[in-house]
Amino acid sequence: MIRQLLCTWLAALSLAPAARAEVRFDNVIASATLDRPVRYALYLPPGYGADSRDYPVLYLLHGGGTGQPSDWFTLAGIDHLLDRMIAAGEIRPLIAVAPDGRRDALNDVATYFLDDRDGGTRWETMFFADFIPAVETRHRAIGSGDARALLGISMGGVAAAVYQLRAPDSFAGAAALSSAFRTEGQLLALSPEGYESRYGGVLGSGLEGADRINSAWQALLPATLAAGAEAARFRRVPRLYFDIGADDPFFEATAALHVALRDAGVKHRFRVTEGGHDWPFWRGALESALRHVDAVLSRGYGE
User: Fold this and answer.
1) Which one-letter DSSP state was computed for residue 173?
2) Which of 13, 32, 61, 99 could form a disulfide with 40 if both were Cys (CB 3.0 to 4.6 A apart)?
């Protein structure tokens, strides 16, 4: 009788629905810094609703132009990839949060997830002062720097690298896919309209010629970022990961950052694979990027 009951219980257990992940769009936090709400998309891992544990958080920074938080799910399919890798035990369960880095509904000028030179929009300040604390209070996050990571694409890849280098205690690590760093020549070659849509906020509006090479631009140069990094915090573990296509228009500047970091003793990973600056490349690069994220979150490199 006991054996029969045990078999019945095991059969019922095998038929029970597995815990499912959840994706929520149009989540909102209030920001005193921006004086407006900031939307975000949210991934909650399988089992989140059935347990009481706290989770690490991965912040997903989208690309520029028409980029938006939902891209991570509708175009990249990161929720399905996370489901598969978590279920297979390849990465630990985590919460993934994709903030809206657009300036406004029109988004005529990119934010780069950074503060404007004139302070008109302080997106980076908002992220650290308002967004992270609100998200990690609202959702069951571990809430410490060693349980927090970044993953960015293009414009978001720039911010992911900048945040990691400038605020190493705030994140365990970062992965930057096709980070949209430009050379000085590329910056100067932009038309007035092209310049305004990309750098009118971060570097200043209406600049032409040598006026574009200002202190805000200098702060984003490879040599400046490498010199400002505390190399000792990066010597044991390659916390920063780059993956860029061999035919990407931003290859040259990203490679220059790799060389500057290498020469400064900032241990990192720099991967070059075939491809351009597009979704086929990013979808193909996501799995390796997530493995890097898991490694830094779990100190898988042996720190």
Assistant:
1) E
2) 99
Structural tokens at position 267: 């241990």
Q: Is the Cβ–Cβ distance between 127 and 112 less than 8 Å?
A: no
Mean pLDDT of 233-246: 91
Quickly tell me which residue has 């571990």 as its tokens.
142
Per-residue pLDDT tens for 270-282? 999 999 999 999 9
Q: Which of 75, 91, 57, 286 is nearest to 83 (CA)?
A: 91
141 forms bridges with which residues in the sheet? 55
Domain boundaries, given as residue ranges, for the chain: 18-181+220-297
Sort 160 into a burial class: Cβ within 10 Å, 0-12 / 13-18 / 19+: buried
Residue 85 to residue 88: CA distance in whole angstroms: 5
Rounded Cα gap, residues 126 and 120, in angstroms: 12
Q: How many Cα neighbours within 13 Å face the side chain of 59?
A: 31
The CATH homologous superfamily of the domain defined by 18-181+220-297? Alpha/Beta hydrolase fold, catalytic domain (3.40.50.1820)
Q: Which residue has the tokens 């990465």?
A: 91
Q: What is the pLDDT of residues 108-162, one digit of tens each?
A: 999 999 999 999 999 999 999 999 999 999 999 999 999 999 999 999 999 999 9
Query: 0.90 exceeded by the pTM?
Result: yes
| Backbone φ, ψ for residue 195 (5° rounding) | -65, -45
Q: Which of 144, 177, 181, 179 is CA-nearest to residue 78?
A: 177
Mark out the alpha helices in 120-229 (DSSP H runs). Answer: 123-126, 132-138, 155-166, 184-189, 192-199, 215-218, 222-228
